[in-house]
């Protein structure tokens, strides 16, 4: 039950209680005195004809749904009160389906801005009170009568799916595909609910552009290969110097001109290239004072160890940049989200790389010091919690986001702490730049809990070494 429904019912119960407590006469008498000026909350009579029309509409809708089934014999009087919606009270003789006639007070509580429609109470002499509800549309009432048990869930999924299609411009080839996508969407709503229920941080999960995709389809938008644990990474162990002075509580390379705008890898498993260019953009800016965007497409086309849209590893990409001879600017070698012929031009190599360093695995303190001293860091992460991430500090249960299963390459650009004094809770976090465009997450960024290697955030931290 949502808040609005609860409020409506509480309001209705209060009204019913007040009347049932024998205050009815006084209530009406008081209302008659304020006939000429009807403030909010005042009661105003209206014509028997109007009342009969409204009662008829209401009874028609109830008949189309689950009832009760009455027809009007005679309307005596009616009044209308405006309190958080409109409460209409009609005094009438009604005939039930057994042709028995009853003198009834019918109360219709309408909140036109709410989808769930009207609450109706029948208080008939010597009869138990009957409550009913109808929506504003007869179609809805019909659906309800056919699908008593899951009508609401169906209606809601349908509505959410429709909104999703509009927001993300989804067009499906035919009805069959739409139905298949809707089934996936419904399943994903359950996953979203599960993520929200089990969240230990402050993150909210909800409908994203990936909401009609299976997890296999979603994984094609990441693209990080697993490291071969038996083999050396090829990187030198990073020398982590202690940050000189007091370690700041918060730090963000975005505020120091070291992070370019959020990019979008599109339908291509090229995260590894974006993670690496992000790292190099930061190092290059810190070295030269010039923030430039570097080309991922060059890596897709010219790095023959990695596999363009079918995934790759930052470890390989650093070596490839060294071998190719440097990186061109994004504007010179623009992104196409698919592999093409390599057309690297040596005279446009603006940054060169001599190798890379590998940060200590699973040590977030080392990562923090290294970040402060050197710049943004390329990391591998388990992207399970990212498919439906909408914002907040993400701290999923370990079993839902194993550190051994890194499948996405991203960029750590800073860190901070969220304080929730009312809950005696603080949430330290990493600020992570993603490559799914600025509409995803927090303007393209992900905040993930810092301190227990959540989703393997510090398992595969690396950085290029500029030549
Ligand atoms: C490489 O870039 C330079 C500078 O823009 C240009 O003059 C040259 O023609 C390019 N070479 C090729 C092979 O495209
Ligand atoms: C993690 O790194 C910090 C800073 O470099 C170091 O002092 C600490 O000993 C490391 N912790 C472990 C468990 O290796």
UniProtKB/TrEMBL annotation:
Location of the Cathepsin propeptide inhibitor domain: 161-218
Family of this protein: Belongs to the peptidase C1 family.
Signal peptide positions (record): 1-21
Pfam family, one: Peptidase_C1
Domain Peptidase C1A papain C-terminal, residue spans: 247-466
Record-linked Gene3D superfamilies: 3.10.450.10, Cysteine proteinases (3.90.70.10)
Species of origin: Drosophila lebanonensis (Fruit fly)
InterPro entries reported for this sequence: Cystatin_dom, Cystatin_sf, Papain-like_cys_pep_sf, Pept_asp_AS, Pept_cys_AS, Pept_his_AS, Peptidase_C1A, Peptidase_C1A_C
Protein's name according to its UniProt entry: Cysteine proteinase CG12163 isoform X1
Domain Cystatin: 38-125
